[in-house]
Design a protein that fits this description.
It comes from mine drainage metagenome. The protein is α/β, with parallel strands linked by helices and 507 residues long. Helices cover 40% and strands 12% of the residues. A hairpin with a 6-residue loop joins strand 10 and strand 11. The two termini are 22 Å apart. The structure holds glutamine.
């Protein structure tokens, strides 16, 4: 494989600046790898080769003209297929949007383009970002590059797999209950859910509007910070966008110093139900932070126990309303339009054919929870629980600067293992969901391989709203200490995909 594809975005930025490599060459190197290996991984739903090469050559010309460029100009990126890009198909992993080409760019997309980032293509995901394994995609699952018979996490499994397979050094994910952090955890990559409102949702196809947040995915904490800087900041097109300066996450990622920081281990997010190797690697990392001079205490957040049921009322309720726009009249699929049927019949046939089982389950659940007579008992109660969870966070932050936990209770499970058991699937997000309910920032970074299965374990850092720099500071310091301990990045230990290809891997 070309050495170029294994490098971090920040290293590649240096090579581009010094003229050792051009953006076009870099883009081609990544496409070569994708062409050879994505048949096994299925990280991408669509490749925009022409658009990407045009952007790369534009950046090369601008550099040759001596124009001042952003640090990420010319760096390739994989975009989760729930974010719109003008003229490029956006499916949200659903049949109902098959063939739809958006007429505009999301704010994230236009900011990436303005920074000279090269968007390689759109990545696979669970349908409308509902899931934890990418098995709910209507276009077939994505395979984890660590072991092709396992899930790459979800819903953003295409983005995490693209990073771990060295198809792209950067990716964008979205996180409603954990879909950036859990895929990062199970693929040994870095994923950040910024503070709610920190990154614009304009052009992000809505699943649960009060929880959805797009964020950066990468292979290093610094790369995530560089991408964060490009996409974050106020946007008048999103009413929930925060109009305040973005914390200096890049400086924080480079600090590598946690002396005197107070770090809280959340008692409720660990212990029973968490895989032994996940607990072990987590505890070792906590000890490492202590060695680096942080003050570690245990904190209790008693209402986190109710986060999962509250989420599975709030998220489906908002989804049932958001997904009403897929009515066969405005976007994508239309079934039964043979002039003999009413608009309502066409709508029914289209939704029946276009939505998969998990999306239907959630629309039905949400519609029920919002219906008169049940609204107070279900949706209203869930909102009260949400307030209690926010208060738990507020009380914890009186004692500590950031909170930590394992990102996910287990390492990557086998494709198919939990597909028929929604509750087992929902439990994957037990440690990530409280963060979305409170709108805090959350990061997952790799903290070692579980001894029992040799698969990556994720370490979660949670920071108070609008203090995203704190999680980057802790993440940057921990990553450096872990690299020293393990002799380099965890991804150096990934079994080679080329050999999986030779052995036939898993279809
Ligand atoms: N796995 C969770 C769900 O299925 C979270 C999804 C997400 O963050 N988009 O809803």
């Amino acid at each position: 494989m070309s050495d170029l594809v294994t490098k971090s975005a920040s290293d590649l930025s240096g090579l581009l600046n010094s003229g050792e490599v051009s953006a076009v060459e870099l883009t081609q190197a990544h496409y070569e790898r994708i062409d050879a290996l994505d048949v096994k991984v299925h990280a991408f739903l669509h490749l925009d080769t022409e658009g990407a090469l045009a952007q790369a050559s534009k950046v090369d010309k601008a550099r040759a003209n001596g124009e001042k460029l952003s640090p990420l100009a010319g760096i390739p990126l994989a975009l989760k297929d729930v974010i719109v890009q003008e003229g490029v198909p956006t499916t949200c992993g659903s049949k109902i949007l098959e063939g739809w080409r958006p007429p505009y760019d999301a704010t994230i997309t236009s900011r990436l383009k303005a920074a000279g980032v090269v968007i390689l293509g759109k990545t696979n995901c669970d349908e409308f970002a509902m899931g934890s394994s990418t098995e709910n995609s209507a276009y077939g699952p994505t395979h984890n590059p660590w072991d092709l018979s396992r899930i790459p996490g979800g819903s953003g499994g295409g983005s995490s797999a693209a990073l771990a397979a060295f198809f792209s050094p950067l990716a964008i994910g979205t996180d409603t209950g954990g879909s950036i952090r859990q895929p990062a955890a199970v693929t040994g990559t870095v994923g950040v859910k910024p503070t709610y409102g920190g990154v614009s949702r304009y052009g992000l196809v809505a699943f649960s509007s009060s929880l959805d947040q797009a964020g950066p995915c990468a292979r290093t904490v610094l790369d995530a910070a560089l991408l964060h800087e490009v996409i974050a900041g106020h946007d008048p097109m999103d009413a929930t966008s925060i109009n305040a300066p973005v914390p200096d996450v890049v400086a924080a990622a480079k600090m590598r110093d946690v002396k005197g920081m107070r770090i809280g281990v959340v008692k409720e997010l660990g212990g029973e139900g968490y895989q032994a190797g996940v607990r072990q690697r987590f505890e070792e990392s906590v000890a490492l932070l202590e060695e680096l001079g942080a003050e570690v205490v245990e904190v209790s957040c008693p209402h986190f126990e109710y986060a999962l049921p509250a989420y599975y009322l709030i998220a489906p309720s908002e989804a049932s309303s958001n997904l009403a726009r897929f009515d066969a009249m405005r976007f994508g699929l239309r079934v039964g339009d043979d002039k003999g049927l009413s608009a309502e019949e066409v709508m029914n046939l289209t939704r029946d054919a276009g939505f998969g089982p998990e999306v239907k389950r959630r629309i039905i659940l949400g519609t029920y929870a919002l219906s008169s007579g049940y609204y107070d008992a279900y949706y209203g109660s869930a909102q009260k629980v949400r307030t209690l969870i926010m208060r738990d966070f507020a009380a914890a932050y009186e004692k500590v600067d950031v909170l930590v936990s394992p990102t996910s209770p287990t390492t990557a499970f086998k494709i198919g293992e939990k597909a028929n058991d929604p509750i087992a699937m929902y439990l994957n997000d037990i440690a990530t969901i409280p963060v979305n309910l409170a709108g805090n920032g959350g990061m997952s970074l790799p903290c070692g391989l579980a001894p029992e299965d040799g698969l990556p374990v994720g370490f979660q850092i949670i920071s108070p709203a609008m203090k995203d720099d704190l999680m980057y500071r802790v993440g940057g310091a921990l990553e450096a200490a872990l690299n020293e301990k393990w002799g380099g990045s965890m991804l150096n230990q990934i079994p080679s995909l080329e050999s999986a290809l030779i052995q036939g891997g898993v279809a």
